[in-house]
Amino acid sequence: MNSYDHRENVNKVWITVLPKLDRQEHYDQGPYAVIFARTRGLTSRLKKKRTSLENCRRFELFLLSERYHVLRVLAFHVVIATTGRLLDVLENRYLLLNQCSYVIFDEADRMLDIGFEPEMQKVLGYLPVSNQKPDTDDIEHEEALMNNFATREKYRQTVMFTATMSPAIERLARAYLRRPAVVHIGSAGRPTERAEQIVYMITEDKKEKKLVEVLEQHFDPPINIFVNQKKVE
């Protein structure tokens, strides 16, 4: 997925969650869905979508932060967290994943790039094996899959959104996904044909001036500026 297709990066996550939240019983067995984000800032952006979704379906969403002790007394359909925070909660037994049927990794490649693979593997190890899809040819038939989807004992669905298909992503997919479907957007290794790329070779001290010059060329908004670090002076 390239930058022109990102739009609002969190929208794709909610598309996968909206149809999933009908069940109401067994609150003490944990959430039905877990969404992993790379940073706490991204988890906050995801949670901002809550209001629009509550108009469609009644569900409870929890942003995992310092107040995670409330998980012991309150019930939530969906939990949004970084892998490190959720792993801490699981290890201290504040939360169970006994009925988690939907696992979503947003920007999975970036999570691996910054060294989160061990945490991701540990968290996936807490998921129940009882709702894994059987690794057989029979279950791949559309009728069998739809019959299972109509029951309360749905097979677990694990979704990884990634801009690149690195060896680490493939390794993780082979270990935890059963016959996964891979959806490609655009051409692998090539930019989208709708994007025009222009490269300016300049020195570090002239970057800001050049950026202003480019922005003054009357481009229509919205305009996204990507940087490699968070730094405000």
TrEMBL record:
Q: Which stretches make up the Helicase ATP-binding domain?
A: 29-183
The family database entries (PROSITE patterns) matched by this protein are listed as:
DEAD_ATP_HELICASE, HELICASE_ATP_BIND_1
Q: Name one Pfam family in it.
A: DEAD
A single Gene Ontology molecular function, please?
Answer: helicase activity
Entries under InterPro entries matching the protein: DEAD/DEAH_box_helicase_dom, Helicase_ATP-bd, P-loop_NTPase, RNA-helicase_DEAD-box_CS
Record's PANTHER family? ATP-DEPENDENT RNA HELICASE DBP3
Keyword set for this entry?
ATP-binding, Helicase, Hydrolase, Nucleotide-binding
Name of the protein this chain belongs to: Helicase ATP-binding domain-containing protein
UniProt cross-references to SMART domains, sorted A to Z: DEXDc
